[in-house]
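[step 3/7] inverse_fold.run input=structure_tokens len=180
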């Protein structure tokens, strides 16, 4: 009788995010406790800005009232126009450039920031029509924006960000009242 190697059919394959992206975090954005952002960095330099799983919007069964990409009277992230192979025309963002403002049903407002320097490639207009995507699938269909760092800066953009291990350690050190 031949030996047949048994494989665990219940073992889940890693998600697309886990396979192709590196997770980076910005904790307590602009000094606001628990307002954590997550940046998913692909090997091709593209970065996807999402909410970290510890962000207050994703806690306590909150619901989203509105999402607004209008940053100021003269600046809307929805007006971002990118063209060509080198993605010309996208708005240039600094680390602390606001991407959008999210208002929850309890009237709490949160500003989501880019966290990295680069060119804005796109914002997720789907969350305007279906805000629950942000709550249910923050790392995939509920992402906030896609940013392309400058080639020469692509290695250094993560200097001010935390690795997943560093982020988990920071979260575990928070006072219990701040933890989810």
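[step 3/7] decode complete -> sequence:
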């Amino acid at each position: 009788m031949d030996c047949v190697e048994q494989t665990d059919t219940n073992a889940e394959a890693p998600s697309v995010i886990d396979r192709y992206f590196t997770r980076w975090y910005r904790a307590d954005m602009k000094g606001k406790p628990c307002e954590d952002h997550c940046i998913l960095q692909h090997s091709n330099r593209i970065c996807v800005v999402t909410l970290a799983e510890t962000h207050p919007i994703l806690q306590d069964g909150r619901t989203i009232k509105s999402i607004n990409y209008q940053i100021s009277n003269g600046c809307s992230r929805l007006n971002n126009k990118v063209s060509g192979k080198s993605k010309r025309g996208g708005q240039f963002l600094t680390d602390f450039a606001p991407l959008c403002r999210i208002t929850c049903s309890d009237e709490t407002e949160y500003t989501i920031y880019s966290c990295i320097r680069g060119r804005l490639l796109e914002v997720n207009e789907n969350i305007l029509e279906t805000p629950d995507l942000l709550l249910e699938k923050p790392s995939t269909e509920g992402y906030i924006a896609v940013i392309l760092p400058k080639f020469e800066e692509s290695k250094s953009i993560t200097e001010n960000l935390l690795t997943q291990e560093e982020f988990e350690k920071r979260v575990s050190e928070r006072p219990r009242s701040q933890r989810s």
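[step 4/7] annotate
The helical segments are 16-20, 126-129, 132-136, 164-172.
The chain has four helices and eleven strands.
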